[in-house]
Amino acid sequence: MFQVKTTAGASKSVRYRELFDQLTGLLVDESDWLANTANCAALLYQGIPGLNWAGFYFMRGGELVLGPFQGKVACVRLQVGRGVCGTAAQRRQTVIVPDVTRFPGHIACDPASRSEIVVPLPQGDKLIGVLDLDSPAIAHFDQTDVDGLERIIGLLLQRSDFRFLCA
């Protein structure tokens, strides 16, 4: 049985190194994209304090469709260019929103969410989806989160077979 372990009181950067190492272990003998994104969402949800949602949306038919996640029931379909997820997908870059109530066009799947970070999942010249993390705290995310999450997504993309999503 796998247990998420983080050093109590550790800095964010140390915590992200620990999460990266744990994800590396989870991906050693598994390449299935669905299993790996499900475990990644669970690992991040349990390993990053202060989250109320962690999950993936994948590109399907020109829109983002809900994938594996941890947290409350979520919006199923999101348009590219709308909301935080759609903006990150359109820009193909990580987006941090310190206060979602001040983000034009924010889509409130959970009204308790106050800050958000969304990391794109590029595969070659295509975007296959995004990772979305929400927190009920204002300004919960910063550059350390960007660096740690982009590194984790890089590992996930390298070790998982997303070929059919890229077709």
Give a verbal description of the structure.
There is one protein chain. This protein is of the alpha+beta class and 167 residues long. The protein has a single domain, classed as GAF domain (Beta-Lactamase). It has helices at residues 12-27, 33-47, 83-91, 143-159; strands spanning 53-60, 63-71, 77-79, 95-97, 115-123, 126-135. A 6-stranded antiparallel sheet has the order 3-2-1-6-5-4, sandwiched between helices. A hairpin with a 2-residue loop joins strand 1 (53-60) and strand 2 (63-71). Helix 1 (12-27) runs parallel beside helix 4 (143-159). The mean pLDDT is 92.
- Derived from helix and strand composition plus strand pairing, the structural class reads alpha+beta
At CATH level 2, the architecture is: 2-Layer Sandwich
Give the number of helices: 4
Q: Quick one: CATH class?
A: Alpha Beta
CATH topology: Beta-Lactamase
Summary of the model, kept short:
By secondary structure, this protein is an alpha+beta fold.
Question: What does the secondary structure layout of this molecule look like, with pairings?
Answer:
Elements: H1 12-27, H2 33-47, E1 53-60, E2 63-71, E3 77-79, H3 83-91, E4 95-97, E5 115-123, E6 126-135, H4 143-159
Antiparallel strand pairs: 1-2, 1-6, 2-3, 4-5, 5-6
Key features of this structure:
167 residues, alpha+beta, 34% helix
